[in-house]
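Contributing: when you submit paired examples, paste them exactly as shown. First protein:
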Amino acid sequence: MSSGIDIKVEFPDLRDIQQGFRNLRPSLARKHMGAAIRRSLDPGLEALRGNVAKGPTGNLRRAITSKVKTYKSGNAVGLVGFVAAGSGKSKSAAGGRVKAGKDRAFHAGFLEFGTRERVIKTSSMRGGASIASSFKSLGKFTIKQASKRQQAAGFVRVTTNPKYPRAFFKKAKKGEVLNLGEMPIGGSFGQPPVKTAYLESISQMRSGLRLEMIKALQNAIKETLTAPQRKK
């Protein structure tokens, strides 16, 4: 999973239950504790999905996942976040360089923390104007120019087909720098997806984890009692 935007679930009020797991064989404790934590992460997963827009590629939602790490000591940690970007197979999202896949959420950090002001200083070969476009990166599109009447009235905005966010085009006036502004935290949602999901689901995960851990400890003890006795 990608670093910096994961949720670590560890609750001090589970120490009594953790002590019960420590009295078990470590491999058995890891098995049942890991399963309990994995089930308790479901509210966090649903909350994160609800705070992420589908977008033009669907990559961000596709990358949402959970992970449980168990240790030889018998302890375990649960994480909810996004799959680390660039680690698996992918295909073109819409005919351009941008790929679609479970591990293509390169922009997850931008949404969580926002960006500084973005400026395009280079000029295109035509007209000497700075342009920002998704034509090569996301895929081809067509542009509908404003009518002469609209231009005369000061209307200079162009419309892409398909429309934004599936296509993007912005052009500065000749000789001017193109300012794309800052990317706000959370994008169109206006709030950081992981942090917001954490706050929305923490109480459910806390209560659910305790219940799941109790059931897991009972199942682990039952497995110990019913397992064949090892020969000395």
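Second protein:
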Amino acid sequence: MDLEFIELELDWPSEIGLFELKNYILSKLIDYGEPLRWAITSLNTHSEKKVQIITIEAVLIINQAKGKDINPDLN
């Protein structure tokens, strides 16, 4: 098991409301690993595209191989 820091930019679709944003972000982060901590660090609006871009910084738990213990001597 390892920890990994990532920075991710996501489009914030207009059909996703503020109260649904947390679940939207978590659903995107789970593609990379299990979120331990995360934060929205910036929000940019592109008026010509009518879209908002959010930047997320996250620390993720990355499992090396399922079914293996943390201590390799135990396997």
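If you have annotations for the second protein, write them as plain sentences, like these:
The longest helix spans residues 21-29.
The first strand starts at residue 2 and ends at 12.
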